[in-house]
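Morning F.,

Quick status update on the modeling queue. The single chain you submitted on Monday has been processed. Sequence for confirmation:
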Amino acid sequence: MSARTFCNPILAGFYPDPSICRVGDDYYLVTSTFEY
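C-alpha cells below.
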C-alpha cells in the first residue's frame, strides 16, 4: 500500500455533526442541516 497525504477540509460557517461516508473508492463529508 502506498503512502497518501490528505488535507483536512476547512468549512466556513456552522456545520454540526460532521460524518464521513465512503462509496467505493470515494469519500464524502456530510453534515446535519436545519433546513427542509
